[in-house]
Each structure stands twice: as structure tokens, then as C-alpha cells.
Amino acid sequence: RSSWLLLAPLLTPPVPVITAPPCSLCPEGAHRFQWIRNLVPEFGISSSHVKVLSSPTEFYELLKVQIKTAKQRVVMASLYLGTGLLEQELVDCLEETLEKSLQAKGSSNLRVSILLDYTRGSRGRKNSRTMLIPLLQRFPEQVRVSLFHTPNLRGLLRLLIPERFNETIGLQHIKVYLFDDNVILSGANLSDLYFTNRQDRYVLLQDSPEIADFFTELVDAIGDVSLQLQRDDTVQMMEGMVHPYQGDKMAYCEIANRRVMEVINSARTRQELLHAKTFHSSHQGSSLLSQQGAQASGGLKPEPDTWIYPLIQMKPFGIQIDEMVTETLLTEAERDARVYLTTGYFNLTQAYMDLILGTRAEYRILLASPEVNGFFGAKGVAGAIPAAYVYIEHQFYSEVCYLHQQERVQLQEYSRAGWTFHAKGLWLYLAGSDLPCLTLIGSPNFGYRSVHRDLEAQVAIVTENKALQQQLHQEQEQLYLCSGVVSSSTFEQPNRYVKLWVKLVTPLIKNFF
User: Fold this and answer.
1) Which of 355-369, 466-480, 497-511 is the least confident region?
2) Are 184 and 332 part of one and the same domain?
3) Mean pLDDT of all residues in the chain?
4) Contacting residues for 96 by C-beta, under 8 A, at least 6 apart
5) Which residues contact 35 (CB under 8 A, 6 or more apart)?
6) Rounded mean pLDDT, 122-142
7) 103 & 199 share domain
8) What's the confidence (pLDDT) of residue 470?
9) Residues 360-381 pLDDT 10s
10) What is its EC number (predicted)?
11) Structural domain contains residue 387
């Protein structure tokens, strides 16, 4: 089977990296990041609406509570839905909520939309599809299940690459869980490991209708260009839609680009108009007393102190917003700023590595030790993937040492008995500050796959509020507390031995995991 994996780089040539245009940031505080709204909608909210979660159990319990209390919409995008008892409990919660909704009104207002990846969601006899078919059969008018199939897996390649390995070509990797006007952004999938002992990151944005509308529209847009799961476990495209692997690839990608960019641009226009309206009304007779009176009567929302920017990356469709923003943030981080960057799979793009090694900020990079890598102990070729990550890590560490950057760029390995590590994102501490004013949280891993192959989404959360900054700081500290600093002696340990064949094969396949 590994021979097919080796063919993949030859069959799908890599795309050259495009770096972001230079961008000068404004000088002061959180407002220096307002340039991001030139690319995506800016949602201003109160920091009291943001809650940072810390554990898989907390995440799972919140999902269940949110499903049970949803009245209008449940929108869930994930790589896949697992097939265990905990996942079945989530499906049961959905069924109960839909049933109650029907009983209450006779015809339900509640709509459930689920977006998963086709290849990962179809793996095995019992899979994500078989878990969800009972919902489709019982509530055909209220439930939609969309399965995204990458346009890059087609023709001979699709016929030759076996199950599991076909997931290397491209996936639906976005993770967003939305209930009425509450949105959970995470890197966690809907699977029992992510509910028990697989460490990830999770943030809840409460009572945020504009953000919820945006992600509902985004998932709808991707759903519209995805295969629709039917009640008999077949799939079909919406009427008039180009097929992702049977139709014309360029036509399909153009339609997908147009649908997604419509969502981004219309939300951006809406938010700009809202911002202009709010700005205008707050400057018309805005004495302190009149504002206080309006606030007391519920006429005005409190001034936002936190801004949410959705960052989308869908290179198959020519959308590279997340890549541009991430590269600009890394480029513009000044001397004495600190960047804490974490990924469960340390396999940075060359562009990100060059920026980390060539800029002035301090970096603390948290990655998985081999034992907490999700592939540790896997059968077959997949069992060698942790060793491949060790090899990539060693190469990067050697480059850091060669450039005498060990003080400025530090690698740390997450290690926790009985756990695996899947957290990804970034915290930015401006020079002279003990608290972060910006974090990136969502699905991207900062690797080649995230930039070039998969559909990804994260948010930049920018805040001036000290209490929220403290929450983000504690989240970062809690993750980094379970780590040890990497040094030359790390790679001399017996468990870091990398076989020759892994060293030879890694450069060929590193763009696929």
C-alpha cells in the first residue's frame, strides 16, 4: 500500500508558495490589526461573550447542552463523526431536539446542517454516513448532510489510491459547531478521543448572531458544492451543480470560489455598513448622559472591545486569505514580541519556516512528542509517521542551531501520559506585554496540507480586554506546562531513532500529512 503513497507526489504536483504582500501595521495596541478587515468581515463584540474552554470533557458536555437547547439551527462542520457510544449520544441529542421541535409546533423551525469530508466520512463499513442516515430518514425536511469531495481526487488517481490513503489528496478540515447564535471554534473533530483524552483548543462565542450567520452561510456554500447524503446511503449533487470528480475541474473550482467569496464579501459589506452606522449614530449628539440613558434602556450595545476576523484557506478554490494573514502577522511581529505557536503535526511550510527563522520576534513552538502524536502505535505505514515528524523536527532544530537562533526560537514538546495532542494556533504578545492581544484558533496546522490541500478556517481574535487576555494567557500556559524544551540531547534518546527508509521517504511524502 505504501507504494501508492509514494506515487502521490508525482501524480499531484505541488503548487508554488505565494507570499503575502507587505503590510504596514498601525502603531498602537489591538487596533494595529484592523488591516485584516480589508480582506474579511470584522465582527466587533464584547469580551464577555467569549469563553475559552480547556478540556475535551468540557467541550463534549457543551456540545450536548447546546444541541439540547437549540431552537432555530444546528450547524456542524467537521472532518468526520466517529462511530462510538459518545458520538451516538450526540446523534441521540440531535434526534431528541428535532423530535421536541416537531411536537412543540407541528412543523419545526429547527434546521440541522452537517458538513463532513466524503473520504474520511465513508471509511469502513460503519462510518459517519451510517451514523447519520437514521436522522435523514426520520427528519428529511430538517436535516441536511453534505459530504465534501476534493476535486483533486479524480480519474486514475481515484481508482488507484486505496481507502485511508485517498485522504492524503485533500479534505474538508474545517471544525465549527454552531447552535442558534452561539459558535464553537476548535480544531477538534466529532470523535470520542476528542471528547476524552485528546488535547485540543476550543473557544465559545456566545450570543453572536452576525458571526453565527457568517459561518452558517460558509457551511451552506461548501455544502452546496458537496455531495448530498441520501436516505438510502447514496450521494448526489444538487441539481445543476458541477460534479467534483466527474465534471470539469476548472468549472467546479470556479463555482466553489464564487460561492465562498460571495459569503465573505457580502458579510464584509454588511459589517462595514453596520460599523459606519454605529460610528455615525455614536457621534450624533453623543453626550455621555445620552449614551448612558440609551444603554440603560437597552437602546445601545456596549462598545466592542474584541474583534473577530474569520480567516479562510481553500487553495483548491484559489482562496488564500488565512495564508496571507498568517504570513503578514509573522512578518510584522516586531523585536521583543513573543509568538507562541502550536501544532499537533509539526510540518511547517517553507514560507512559514523562513519567516520564523528570518524575523525578529521570539518564538516558542509547541509540538507533539512522538508518544502523543495521533499516529503513534498505528498499524502499517502510518505507524512510521511519528518518526517522520521527529525527522522533520530534527531538521528544523538543526537549522535553528546553524543560524545561532536557539535563544530566539525554542521548540517544546508536549508530553502527557495516556493523552494525544492535537492543539493548533497562535498567541501573539506585543513587545513589553505579559498578556496576548491576539490569538488564532481553528483547524489549520500551519503545514503544507493546511495551506495547499484542505479546506480550512480559523478566526483571529483580537482583544483589548484584560480579563479575556488573561483567559488566553492561561490557556497558553496550561498547554505549555505539559512540555519540555527540545535540545540536541532530545534527538539522542532511543525513542528518537529514525530508520533510514523513513529519512529517504519523508521528503517525498511530507506534503501529504
Assistant:
1) 497-511
2) no
3) 90
4) 68
5) 23, 25, 26, 328
6) 97
7) yes
8) 98
9) 999 999 999 999 887 776 666 7
10) 2.7.8.5
11) yes
Q: Is residue 288 part of a domain?
A: no
Q: Which residues of 206-234 are buried (b: 16+ CB within 10 A; e: fewer)?
A: eebebbbbbbbbbbbbbbbbbbbbeeeee
* 185: containing domain: 43-267
Last residue of a domain, one of 214, 239, 267: 267
Q: Is the dihedral of CA 366, 371, 377, 382 positive or negative?
A: positive
Asked if residue 213 and residue 135 are part of one domain, the reply reads: yes
Q: How far apart are CA 430 and CA 357, in angstroms?
A: 18
340/390 same-domain check: yes
User: Are residues 122 and 202 in contact, defined by beta-carbon separation less than 8 angstroms?
Assistant: no
pLDDT tens for residues 190-222? Answer: 999 999 999 999 999 999 999 999 999 999 999
To the question of pTM greater than 0.85 for the whole model, the response is yes
> Does residue 169 surpass a pLDDT of 80?
yes
Q: What is the Cα–Cα distance from 148 to 151, expressed in whole angstroms?
A: 9
Over pLDDT 90: what percentage of the chain?
A: 80
Q: Which residues pair with 51 in a beta bridge?
A: 204
Residue 230 pLDDT more than 80? Answer: yes
Q: Three-state SS for 303? A: coil
427 CB burial (10 A radius; 0-12, 13-18, 19+): buried
Is residue 7 pLDDT above 50, yes or no?
Answer: no
Domain contains 371: yes
Residue 222's alpha-carbon distances to 150, 161, 238, 348, 454, in angstroms, are: 11, 25, 12, 26, 12
Whether pLDDT at 114 is above 70: yes
Same domain (yes/no): 110, 185? yes
Residues that are catalytic: 173, 175, 180
**If 0-12 CB within 10 Å is exposed, 13-18 middle and 19+ buried, where does residue 395 land?**
middle
Residue 273 counted as domain residue:
no
- Number of domains composing the chain: 2
